[in-house]
Design brief:
Layout: H1 9-28, E1 87-89, E2 99-104, H2 114-117, E3 120-122, E4 127-129, H3 143-160, E5 164-167, H4 179-188, E6 193-200, E7 210-214, E8 218-219, E9 222-223, H5 228-246, E10 260-263, H6 267-270, E11 276-283, H7 287-293, H8 296-315
Helix pairs in contact: 1-5, 3-8, 5-8
């Protein structure tokens, strides 16, 4: 893929080293997608994950497993939610002076505002829905619940390292925000890194995580030329450390077992002017992956893997 000549060679070397580290981790991690060369069937936009729609969560959604969750990482915030784009500054630490934006995918109330979220917005190269409802497990645990829980855990971990953390929303608005606003929040914060947290909604048997990287896109309001290479570095580091911290294998249906995918149809990436990636932490429609995603203990590991990847990138 073409790279931006303005990116320092040292950044490109770090990305290569991170990719090598991911390969080394996969050799020791259980599975890492090995043994399945089919690549699986990719979920089409509108069928799951970062561009998905699903029925509203049922009342049978499992209660959070509080036996393994830390008190500061509860699925429900212990304090009243802060306004959208709210910030929190951690103690002095290795990430002091760095700004990280966390973008929890979807919104638990999107299904109550179909007219608003179906409104078309400009993503640079085309127009897409403002937002979608996301997917859910067969038992009704919604992707939006998952993403907000992991985002809270991730915020805590990053603040402990001294980072300033901004959430695109914190369960404090009726729907959305729209994908163009999600990108704008990261841009206006001049974030050093942005991560959009998701879970996929693909077919049973499709398992594992993947990190979505921005493609080289120039058109309309979209120009990713300056963020393609740093975003790849960020995403590669997150993928490698997500394997290490969660024990989960890279996707067996997206990315050719690399744990990485490149897309040009996501407004949150197309409109970003700062390094940004999406992570699909697993497939909510597969029972084995769903068992992980509904576990508070595993969600803490997922947050740790993302945090370690961000830290590696920012300190690299």
């Amino acid at each position: 893929m073409p790279y931006d000549e303005s990116v320092p060679p040292t950044r490109r070397r770090r990305s290569l080293l991170a990719a090598t580290a991911l390969a080394a981790v996969c050799l020791t991690a259980a599975g890492c997608g090995a043994g399945d060369d089919s690549g699986g069937t990719r979920a089409e936009p509108g069928q799951g994950g970062s561009g998905t729609s699903a029925p509203p969560p049922s009342k049978s959604a499992p209660a959070p497993d509080r036996t393994t969750a830390s008190p500061t990482a509860s699925a429900k915030p212990s304090k009243p939610p802060k306004p959208s784009g709210s910030t929190g500054v951690g103690a002095t630490g290795p990430l002091s002076g760095k700004t990280v934006v966390i973008d929890p995918g979807h919104n638990p109330n999107n299904h109550l505002h179909t007219g608003e979220i179906n409104r078309q917005v400009d993503i640079g190269t085309t127009h897409k829905e403002c937002d979608t409802t996301g997917t859910s497990t067969n038992s009704g645990y919604a992707e939006a619940q998952f993403t907000l829980d992991v985002s809270h855990r991730l915020r805590t971990l990053l603040q402990k390292q001294g980072a300033k953390v901004v959430l695109t929303y914190d369960n404090d608005r009726a729907y959305g925000p729209c994908v163009d606003e999600r990108a704008r929040i990261g841009n206006e914060a001049r974030a050093d890194a942005v991560v959009s947290v998701h879970a996929d909604g693909s077919a049973v048997g499709n398992r594992g995580f993947h990190v979505i990287l921005p493609a080289l896109v120039r058109g309309g309001k979209a120009d990713t030329s300056k963020i393609v290479e740093p975003s790849r570095d960020l995403g590669t580091r997150i993928a490698g450390l997500f394997v290490r911290d969660t024990g989960s294998a890279p996707s067996n249906y997206v990315g050719g077992n690399s744990g990485l995918d490149i897309r040009k149809d996501l407004g949150g990436l197309n409109l970003s002017t700062v390094p940004k990636v999406f992570i699909e932490c697993g497939n909510m429609r597969d029972p084995k992956d769903a068992a992980l995603l509904t576990s508070a203990g595993w969600r803490q590991k997922a947050a740790q893997g993302i945090a370690d990847g961000i830290s590696s990138y920012l300190e690299g």
